[in-house]
Specification:
The complex is a heterodimer of chains A (about 250) and B (about 250). Chain A is an alpha/beta fold and about 250 residues long. Helix content of chain A is about 40%, strand content about 25%. In chain A, helix 3 crosses helix 4. Chain B is built from nine helices and no strands. Classes of the chains: A alpha/beta (about 250), B mainly alpha (about 250).
Chain lengths: ~250, ~250
């Protein structure tokens, strides 16, 4: 479980996050939605410690994370897996080496054990015979799947996904969404997904947090979102004519 | 005051880089890769530049040597000392700043803008140490060899061009390069080489590491890396010469 207690962040006097408090539960998919510039990515970067919060606290399963220095954060970091928007696979390494990278760095597993783990993770994301390929030889969807495989390789307790569906076709997006959902439930991890893909919201969201101009504007479940009378959220979710018609049905 | 900001950030960057590696075996692998890249990968350009540099120095020295009282073997002395003291350590470092510096800045800059460095940080890896330290160590280890090869090829180029052009005999040139040799000049050249190796790798890595934006900014970082490395090489060339040779 991850708790955010009144976190705030500004850049050059511009408020990006203002007093955001929420809780992300274990074993659930927690979606953070909001328009471009609403503060989703900054909030995720604050949660993983890439950006320090100006105010407020971050707690990981009852242990404070904010305010710790790099060294103190190290044990937390090894529990965190992250899937970046562009995959962030290491170009100079093959798929196999990418997934094996965190295992090489932080475990004492033998080569056979590491290869088993790599193959397990690749199977888990439905990829076969790609071990020796380099990231430049993969399609967008495959890159995302390899990124997920790398993120889950060290058995993380927390999985962060920053817009995992961006740039993917609708069918591949659903595959990725379902994959994230299955992995979350299977390994009982706390998963937080930044998205503005409404299919994801309706398909996999257990809990949804809506950010608007850096503030927590709304939070609830998928069922709640369909019935909410929150004006900004409705405008965001049901922006298209088709979506509005669907809601009216 | 912009330079003060960069100076402060550069020292913080160096401090973060100089930490104990997470796993020596991984760093060792990186080091070997960089040794190959900086050493073997630079030999072609170093050989070509050195041979022609030596050839030009020799022919120009002969051309300028108009006093009949000065023996022609002085051409060998001038060529040797110019190559050892200045051309091989400084000019080769400027060439390597262009080749290696831009490659380091663009590699690390691309990793920054494609979030690969963020991915390393999230895994709990000290990204500056993992990416930069092996490059710095590799450059410090391999540059003296590269510059030594450059010295040899520079003198060879001088001998070859001088004798082929018929402006100096082989015996006179060889007598010249053996005459009044000061071994400390080699030590001085190596001190300069090590300093320049450190400057090229850390300044280029600094520019790459702090790239913000996209492909355009990666290109700018790469250019800045070469420009600032070159300027610093020239400044430190003067400082070291002033400190050690006077």
């Amino acid at each position: 479980m991850i708790e955010l207690k009144s976190i705030s962040k500004s850049f050059n006097g511009r408020v990006i996050l203002n007093n955001v408090s929420t809780t992300f539960e274990k074993g659930h998919i927690n979606l953070v939605i909001g328009g471009s510039g609403s503060g989703k990515t900054v909030m995720m970067k604050c949660m993983v410690g890439l950006v320090d919060v100006d105010g407020g606290e971050l707690w990981y399963d009852g242990k404070i994370f904010s305010g710790l220095d790099k060294k103190e954060r190290k044990p937390f970091r090894q529990e965190i897996g992250m899937v970046f928007q562009g995959g962030a696979l290491f170009d100079s390494l093959t798929v196999e080496q990418n997934i094996m990278f965190p295992l090489n760095m932080f475990t004492k597993m033998s080569l056979e054990e590491k290869l088993d783990r790599v193959n397990f993770c690749l199977n888990r994301v439905n990829l076969v015979n790609v071990n020796k390929l380099s990231p430049s030889e993969l399609s967008g969807g495959m890159k995302k799947r390899v990124a997920i495989a790398r993120a889950i390789a060290p058995n993380p307790s927390y999985l962060f996904c920053d817009e995992p569906n961006s740039g993917l076709d609708p069918r591949t997006s659903i595959v990725i969404d379902n994959l994230i959902k299955e992995i979350t439930e299977e390994f009982n991890i706390t998963t937080i997904v930044n998205t503005h893909d409404m299919n994801s919201v309706l398909e996999i969201g257990d809990k949804i947090l809506y950010l608007h101009r850096g503030e927590k504007w709304w939070e609830g479940t998928v069922d709640d979102i369909l019935r909410t009378d929150n004006k900004e959220l409705n405008e965001f979710i049901f922006a298209s004519k088709l979506a509005k018609n669907v809601k009216n049905i | 005051m912009n330079w003060l900001f960069h100076l402060g950030r550069y020292w913080i960057f160096i401090k973060e880089m100089m930490t104990k590696p997470e796993k020596f075996s991984i760093y060792w692998r990186q080091l070997v890769r960089e040794l190959d890249n900086f050493g073997y990968g630079s030999l072609g350009i170093v050989a070509l530049t050195s041979v022609f540099m030596g050839a030009v120095i020799t022919i120009q020295t002969v051309y300028n040597l108009v006093n009949p009282l000065v023996p022609l073997s002085a051409v060998g002395i001038v060529a040797r000392d110019s190559i050892i003291l200045e051309f091989s350590p400084t000019m080769m470092s400027l060439v390597l700043a262009g080749k290696i510096g831009s490659s380091i800045a663009s590699e690390i800059g691309t990793m920054r803008v494609t979030e690969q460095i963020d991915a390393l940080e999230i895994m709990g890896i000290n990204a500056s140490a993992y990416l930069v330290l092996p490059k710095v160590v590799a450059a410090i280890l391999i540059f003296p060899f590269v510059v030594s090869i450059s010295m040899f090829l520079g003198v060879f180029g001088g001998w070859f061009a001088g004798t082929m052009a018929g402006v100096i005999s082989s015996a006179e040139f060889i007598r010249g390069i053996q005459d009044s040799f000061v071994p400390f000049n080699i030590t001085f050249a190596m001190i300069k080489t090590l300093t320049f190796a450190y400057i090229i790798t850390t300044v280029s890595a600094y520019h790459g590491y702090h790239t913000e934006g996209g492909a355009l900014e990666v290109g700018q970082s790469s250019t800045n890396a070469v420009v600032y490395s070159s300027i610093l090489i020239l400044v430190f060339d003067y400082i070291l010469t002033q400190l050690i040779l006077t």
